[in-house]
Amino acid sequence: MLLKPKIKLNRITDITPDLLARYGIRSLLLDVDNTLSTHHGQMLTDGLPEWLAKMQGCGVRMLVLSNSKEKRVAPFAKKIGLDYISMALKPLPFRFWAALKKAGSHRRDTAIVGDQIFTDVLGGHLAGVKTILLTPILPETSASFRFKRAIERAVIRLYHIQNTEE
Fold it and tell me: E-strand spans in 6-145?
């Protein structure tokens, strides 16, 4: 079950304080590419600023955890007002644990939010945090990403992963 997310949703803004409370989640580790913005983009997804304010207003701790380089992650994290860890080497758990420490969070009440099964979900399970898988904002065009997404679709069918209903 290392590849099966705890929660499956379409967009970041589908995550609500009530949903987090139901699963005992008080902290979120947020992927950037195809989760908060398009792959390598700097534009915020629709509703992201309001969603961030709502989560912060409810006391949810958030930190960006990305495999991208600092020159990509730092300006984005600054734009949304969150601390970050770049070059996370997901799915390896070590930077997840560093993110927990940096955010002052505990594994039992933290979730990773991302769009990839083999980095975000697998890494979250290896690190001992809950996992929230989102539908990618836009499909990637490279051959390696198309191949990876085809395997992810097979995993989703295998585990019968459906969107979590509120």
Answer: 7-9, 27-30, 61-65, 84-85, 110-114, 130-134
